[in-house]
Amino acid sequence: MSLQPGQSIKHLAIIGVGLIGGSFARAMRSADMVQHISGYGRNESNLKTAVQLDVIDDYSLDIKDVVKDADLIFIATPVGSIQKILSEIKDHIKADAIITDAGSTKVNVIQAAEIVFDKAPENFVAGHPIAGTENSGVEASFATLYQNHRVILTPSNYTNPEAVKWVSDLWKAVGADVLIMEAKHHDQVLAATSHLPHLLAFSLVNTLTTLDEKQEIFENAAGGFRDFTRIASSDPSMWQDICLANKDALLEHLEHFMGDLKQVKSALEKGDGEFLKQVFQRAKQSRDDFVDKSGSENLPPPNLRPN
Amino acid sequence: MSLQPGQSIKHLAIIGVGLIGGSFARAMRSADMVQHISGYGRNESNLKTAVQLDVIDDYSLDIKDVVKDADLIFIATPVGSIQKILSEIKDHIKADAIITDAGSTKVNVIQAAEIVFDKAPENFVAGHPIAGTENSGVEASFATLYQNHRVILTPSNYTNPEAVKWVSDLWKAVGADVLIMEAKHHDQVLAATSHLPHLLAFSLVNTLTTLDEKQEIFENAAGGFRDFTRIASSDPSMWQDICLANKDALLEHLEHFMGDLKQVKSALEKGDGEFLKQVFQRAKQSRDDFVDKSGSENLPPPNLRPN
């Protein structure tokens, strides 16, 4: 089963051919890692576009047709739908097919797999590529999305280590850095770096939307506001799913943040500039360190990336 | 006094030769609008760099020398220092010199001018270019910073309309869109679009900095986090000043936001996905509309802008 260097996958099934699934397909093709790609989705016109863009070779609206011959099944649908997908494919996949996913939360995906397969199937490798833009749909997909981005794999106790190695090698072949982590730990970390920021960005823009001066506020916004709120242009249904799926970890970080924000508010009320400055300095220092280390400030922004 | 088309300023004084002051000097030079530029600042090595980069022609650490022959005095120091600057230059400027500033808050700047000059001097035109990056210092300045950006002027009742027209024409000559607004209204609007987002970005990064998994959290951050927190790399002292200077308007918006965030938290606790989705949808809709209208998503990010 394990992938040999240079050996391509005969048949790849992409479940959900959007930004994430489409970019994975494109990346696999670019790396010459795949012979045939079939796509499944609920929106036929999107699938037709995917064929036209040569992201997939063919598609079906019947998921069984798409997975039955697949060696690798890549599930890139919103996390809330993964259990349903697994139930639908369970009885139709090849015995040695590898399944992986790109869900933004991992505890619930592994639980879903345990429910559907009684225990997590040994060939199911839960994963999460830490990459994306605020755009969605196959038109927004591009082959280099995962290059120099991190992919976290969260195998369970049941997972076949060879399957993990196989999926890991695939991601590395398309330029990603792979990290293995426990699912629960993944959800904690991502609640902080991704889910909480999204919740705050959505909330802030929503609050501003309710102000009388709404129109004027948006008209007088500068680049900082544009960057800060970029993630508020993300897909609402997907983020509803993620927030609910990672509710506990997200609530924990949210409470922590709200407590800290209360202190900031109180310092502001008292005119305690020293306190504010310390908060701002700590934040700037951390962020500057992070940007220096990751070098990620040099990545092109979403709008300058090739489609 | 009023600027004739094509007529250049004989002597421009830049008080504070950093990103904002330096970019104004560069822009004025690029537009061939100025004959001589003198700079004042507290950091001599920064001023030397500014001369080397041809941003200014000469400098002095004595502010009197810099302003005494100036036709236009551009104050680009943190808002908390503007009153002191005005006191220092008051008795040394030419009678018909025009003074303008780039402070991020306007009520307190006008109050400062009223205190220093008894009433606001008729040639003082309070202003705020809505432009900037998270970088600071003259090395970060560039001539096109203000192109297609908005500049808000907030003249007081005392301000000579000709002086307003003169400053407005200058900004237009370097490609900015000029808007006239009451100072109090400016501060309300900017509290929402700029000051609150900065406070939240600083606060969030500060909160994450205090977590045990700090290192890991930053390592696993994706592009969305980078964009969301970009403004947390802004200058802490400057933002301390701004927050205190615009305390009332900022607190009002902060309270409103915290109230809304509580509702979001409560929906999350109850697993009320419908509520969350509505918040996310409203936010996405507003931001997408704003980006479509402003077209500003197509601007290059700070790191790709020329220095």
CATH architecture classification name of the largest domain in chain A: 3-Layer(aba) Sandwich
Shape of chain A: globular
Unreliable spans of chain A: 296-307
Query: Mean pLDDT of chain A, nearest integer?
Result: 90
Protein chain pair with the most extensive contact, residues per chain? A-B, 103 and 103 residues
- The CATH superfamily name of the largest domain in chain A is NAD(P)-binding Rossmann-like Domain
Let me know the largest β-sheet of chain A: 6 strands, parallel
CATH names the topology of the largest domain in chain A as: Rossmann fold
Task: Describe the model.
Two copies of one chain form a homodimer. Chain A has 307 residues and is α/β, with parallel strands linked by helices. Chain A has two domains: 9-182, Rossmann fold (3-Layer(aba) Sandwich); 186-295, 6-phosphogluconate dehydrogenase C-terminal fold (Orthogonal Bundle). Chain A is built from twelve helices and nine strands. Chain A has a six-stranded parallel beta sheet. In chain A, strands 7-8-9 form a three-stranded mixed beta sheet, with helices on one face. In chain A, strand 2 (34-40), helix 2 (44-52) and strand 3 (58-60) form a beta-alpha-beta unit. The longest helix of chain A has 27 residues, at 183-209. The two termini of chain A are 33 Å apart. Residues 296-307 of chain A have low confidence and may be disordered. At the A-B interface, helix 7, helix 8, helix 9, helix 10 and helix 11 of A face helix 7, helix 8, helix 9, helix 10 and helix 11 of B.
